[in-house]
Specification:
- The structure is a single chain.
- By secondary structure, the protein is α/β, with parallel strands linked by helices.
- Helices cover 36% and strands 17% of the residues.
- The chain has helices at 2-6, 27-39, 64-75, 96-104, 119-122, 131-137, 151-160, 180-188, 199-207; strands at residues 13-20, 44-49, 81-83, 111-118, 138-144, 168-172.
- Strands 3-2-1-4-5-6 form a 6-stranded parallel beta sheet, with helices on both faces.
- The structure holds adenosine-5'-triphosphate and magnesium ion.
- Residues 20-23, 28-29, 32, 117-118, 120-121, 143, 145, 176, 178-181 line the site of adenosine-5'-triphosphate.
- Adenosine-5'-triphosphate binds at residues 20-23, 28-29, 32, 117-118, 120-121, 143, 145, 176, 178-181.
Length: 215
């Protein structure tokens, strides 16, 4: 990532990581990342498109290069947003722990890592690889996505690792029910996706004929 070789900040570096399939990236992701950046005073948010997503391997997913390019187009105008190729360049499925370890091992300055994730994903964290180490290495920003309650998550966290409560923060963002699935379905039906994703992404989808066939 270009950014890795050009960063030069003295003192604390607060790094937000936002993992996802981004098939395609949409306003829900962008509003979430921007809100997290502001509320947690993050220096950067790095979007990390998944290579072969471990949790989605039986679905058809667009080529990593398409998802990487769409994500790059979407973050173009935000000086704090970057995209990493770390996961898409791996042949094997990668896990959040590997990505967090990668960014956490940066030196000069060593970053404080914040992992931004939707409430739907955070509910599954206990099934993630090395989740205890994950909670040690990073702070989680769990975003309240419409339709998901975090009550169950807090009950589970209370029961299994109560000392980790301070490592998981809730972030309420304006209700945005947009999902990539919703966008793909609309494209397949020939419906407009204007304003659901940045215009360059919309044009990219059109140019490459993505999502024309329902999965
Ligand atoms: P799909 O419909 O294919 O599952 P998605 O919209 O959920 O796609 P992902 O790439 O799976 O997008 O999501 C990446 C991260 O962004 C996840 O942590 C997810 O919970 C979060 N996220 C997705 N959409 C929203 C939204 N509208 N508001 C807040 N967070 C979101
Ligand atoms: Mg999802």
């Amino acid at each position: 990532m270009f950014f890795e070789t050009t960063r030069n900040k003295a003192g604390n570096l607060k790094l937000g990581l936002m993992g996802g399939t981004f098939d395609p990236i949409h306003v829900g992701h962008l509003v979430t990342a921007e809100e997290a950046r502001q509320q947690f005073d993050l220096d950067y948010v790095i979007f990390v498109p998944a290579g072969v997503p471990p949790h989605k391997d039986n679905e058809m997913i667009s080529l990593p290069e398409h998802r990487f390019l769409m994500t790059s187009l979407a973050v173009m105008s935000n000086p704090s947003f970057f995209v990493s190729r770390i996961e898409i360049e791996q042949k094997e499925p990668t896990f959040t722990i590997d990505t967090v370890r990668h960014f956490g091992s940066w030196k000069n300055p060593e970053p404080e890592v914040f992992f931004i994730t939707g409430a739907d994903a955070i509910l599954e964290i206990f099934s993630w690889k090395d989740y205890e180490e994950l909670l040690k290495l990073s702070t989680f920003i769990a975003v309240s996505r419409p339709g998901y309650s975090l009550d169950r998550f807090h009950e589970t966290l209370d029961r299994t690792c109560p000392d980790m409560q301070q490592k998981v923060h809730l972030l309420e963002i304006p209700a945005l029910a947009v999902s990539s699935t919703f966008i793909r379905e609309r494209v397949a039906l020939g419906k407009t996706i204007k304003y659901l994703t940045p215009e360059p992404v919309e044009q990219y989808i059109k140019k490459h004929g993505l999502y024309r066939v329902t999965r």
